Amino acid sequence: MTSIISSGLEKVQHTMSSATEGAKIADLKKDTIDVHDPNNRITTDFGVKSSNTDDWLKASSGDKTGPMLLEDFVGREKIHRFDHERIPERVVHARGAAAFGTFKLYESAEDVTTAGVLTDTSRSTPVFLRFSTVLGSRGSADTVRDVRGFAVKFYTDEGNWDIVGNNIPVFFIQDAIKFPDIIHAGKPEPHNEVPQAQTAHNNFWDFQFLHTETTHMFMWTQSDRAIPRSYRMMQGFGVNTFTLTNKKGERHFVKFHFTPTLGVHSLVWDEALKIAGQDPDFHRKDLWDAIEAGAYPKWRFGIQTIPESKEHDFDFDILDATKVWPEELVPIRYIGELELNRNPDEYFTQTEQVAFCTSHVVPGIGFSDDPLLQGRNFSYFDTQITRLGVNWEELPINRPVCPYMNHQRDGAMRHRISKGTVNYWPNRFGVGPPATKEEGGYLEYPEKIAGLKQRLRSKKFSDHYSQAQLFYNSLAPHEKAHVLSALSFELDHCDDPVVYTRLTERLADIDLELAQGVAEAVGAPVPQKAGTPNHNKKSPSLSQTYYNPKEPTIATRRVAILVADGFDPVAYYGVKAALTAAGALPFTIGPRRLPVHAQGEDKSGKGVSPDHHFEGMRSTLFDSIFIPGGAHVEKLRKNGRALHWVREAFGHLKAIGATGEAVALVRDACQLPGVQFSSSNEVVDSYGVVTAAATHPQSFKETIKMVKGAKDFI
Ligand code: HDD
């Protein structure tokens, strides 16, 4: 993959720490070949060296070619393998990116579970984490408005444990039987396969109206959560309610949480739309580059637990996947940390062939009666058979690192050889028996079940608006404004009046002002009164501003430094060095990639070779821009594309830094009466535009501080 941070940057050498060479990487090495080995020669799949793979064997006379011969096993094999290269893409979450990493526990949860991975603090458990979008095909864009998948495979000493989660803590539906309907409604419409990777169409919103249970989740998808800045800056949630069982046999209900140490940050919608075209691989490159640069993304791992005896103490059903467990009621206990520290070696055999299953649990961890989870436990296992074949668990990325055996031996593409004369249990030799409890055998919790066989949902499942209101009430004003714009965008793309009218009516069950704003925008009758009264309760942790790190960091943020011939070298080199020292990624952007010269520098001087030119990149792909002062400013003023960089960055709420002559450039480009600009030595920060008329070290520091994410203060 071409690295977007490579050119012009002193790229940090990719050195693998010994921690990353864990049990799983060692296991995969058994199946890895190095294509770059100079001793390699092309062979057929059956190992015979090929002397020519460029010309099909032909019947020829002299230098005149005749018909091609079927006899050519090299040619036939090459085309045959090509013809069968593709496998079915995932029916959902088709587009993804993944990385290896390590999970470390810093506090044992032995009071609630016996699982080694959650009790043994001396362990370092290898993980593989795949991020994804849900609705788009494999070739769709990264920055679409969508839920993001957050699927983690823990290769534990007791077998694989998968948390197949999302970056949003709730789900659209309560019962797995509805999954095909919601996905069909969200995917491209069946008659013309339009639109790709979008929920902005009639069918999706028709479904949302007809299923009140989706209200909470669709409010999340219309918030900034659905357009993350980076996979590294979003939360992960197990969503479903699982269970933990401790040594005493006591059971707790549990929800799993991953909280990113970089905070939770998003794009703005216009930016996301543009990036989808300008760099459809934006998120996967961001993840790849951060790991290559040694800036390993980290998440704190936490659990919310509820003892079995308190299952019914809440006014919502704790087994309902459309509900959060508000942190005020059930605090998160952070007990571990997950770090991603190694990129995959190959996309297909690792990121594409990895297969997650909610039913992959290890002793000490179990299921609840959450009806969404129960259905998922069937679906994941089943889908892998279509995608990968019946022996999918044997694939290198999927197999466990602990010993595994059973008497299921055959099936298509089985390659493991099990030696021995019996393939059943019990057998006359007594070999291959099930494990006892002492040997670590998985024991189901003896849950008492009594009841009638019926198709129903429990009573509390019918409250569909309380938490949708709770979520919306908890958002910061700018987050609410973004929800209004998002809904207005989505419903603008629905041309059936029934769809957008009914949906705006539904919004009145959440917030009247929101419903009115959206109705006005999309041309629906404006609701005059709230459908369901708002309870006005809030839960602060539902706003993503809650996760802003206490110490804002600029680490891994992309900063564009705009230059033309005649830039102020003191400001340029000073800011660049300060940014690098703070872990940011500075990029020089100029009118050309050939050298650009500093003020006072002779044209024959070495100059600075920009990483990109103004036409080659866009402001959307950076978190912030800085413009040093100097005579170059006059040239930038005459460059429409450079001015667009400044205006667009401001429009996308990005931090902008300028010194000296560049202050006036920013002022004129943005034409903003409300923004103050420095006219002296003093550093002025107004709306994220940080200016200092004179070049002075404080301005570098301030610029860096501001790049923490301008969205925090708009
Ligand atoms: Fe699912 C894939 C997350 C409900 C059926 N799902 C899939 C992936 C993620 C999720 C992250 C991609 C895994 C990967 O990277 O390979 N799904 C969720 C969450 C859900 C959820 C958080 C609600 C709590 N899913 C859900 C239901 C069903 C499915 C209710 C079916 C009854 N999901 C699937 C699937 C997929 C899948 C069809 C497609 C590819 C795969 O499983 O491996 O089986």
Automatic annotation (TrEMBL):
Reactions it catalyzes: 2 H2O2 = O2 + 2 H2O
The EC number(s) this enzyme carries: 1.11.1.6
Entries under SMART domains matching the protein: Catalase
Residues involved in heme binding: 380
Keywords (A to Z) from UniProt: Heme, Hydrogen peroxide, Iron, Metal-binding, Oxidoreductase, Peroxidase
Segments forming domain Catalase core: 43-433
Region described as Disordered: 525-548
Domain of life: Eukaryota
GO annotation (BP), single: response to oxidative stress
Cross-referenced InterPro entries: Catalase, Catalase_AS, Catalase_clade2, Catalase_clade2_helical, Catalase_core, Catalase_haem_BS, Catalase_immune_responsive, Catalase_large_C
Keyword Metal-binding carried by entry: yes
Family (UniProt): Belongs to the catalase family.
Protein's UniProt name: Catalase
